[in-house]
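Data deposition worksheet. Section B asks for the primary sequence of the deposited chain exactly as it was used as input, without tags or linkers unless they were present during the calculation. Section C holds the resulting structure in token form. Section D is free text for depositor observations; keep each observation to a single sentence. Incomplete worksheets are returned to the depositor.
Section A, Depositor: J.P.
Section B:
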Amino acid sequence: MRDQTPPPGLPFMKMHGLGNDFVVLDHREGGQAVTPALATMLADRHRGVGFDQLAVIEPSDRADARLTFYNADGSLSAACGNATRCIARHLMEETGKPAVTLLTERGLLPCIDAGEGLTSVNMGAPLTDWQQIPLAREADTLHLPLEGDPVGTSMGNPHCTFFVEDAEAIDLARLGPETEHNPLFPERTNVQFAHVIGPDHLRMRVWERGTGITLASGSSSCAVATAAARRGLTSRKVTITLDGGTIHIDWREDGVWMTGPTAHVFSGTLHL
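Section C:
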């Protein structure tokens, strides 16, 4: 008689922060090794699950958990602020703790329950040296040598921020990939277009490296806020309106704190 036992599946959680969506794999007790091929299969919104980034939770002896991130094209991403907040909220609800610390390629990131359903994470200090971003050659990161006079920043991953008159009018689908693959960025770059609404309010749209247009991006929000403050366009504490909603950024002495809502949409099992 043939074995009717179905093949084992891949358990996952689907989460999002302001529409910036993630597939989360909890490997704290083991799990299938993630390869670029598996990541791109999971990212397929028609044949897989669909995500902007994939996040893998693993055990850590230095923090409550270690996180590894993948882009939709299967490449690694050193930072993903909204996914970090989503997973921090999940772990706080799981343990009943009001705060957790998560280890990423960015380092140890403190996360706290900010009340009213909001979660805050300290994404660390912005990096502004050309070699830290990195750039292909030495340049002033406050005024990159590109048309449009953008700002270069690293939040553990590279960012290129353009300040424009109207972010809504930008052809993001064309300018995003052009900038992502500009030779100035040897590791490619995330791209943001933002305009100033007021001294503490920005409007931003984002093209994410290895993914494309997204409704929101945590690390991009941190990069835009610090770039605006460095340019003298805003204060160091701002609200950013994205396509997917509103996030709050506070550039403090101990790092860039990002606060916003999270959602655990559903859990499931994918049969590969």
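Section D:
The chain has two domains: 10-122+260-270, 151-253.
The first strand starts at residue 10 and ends at 17.
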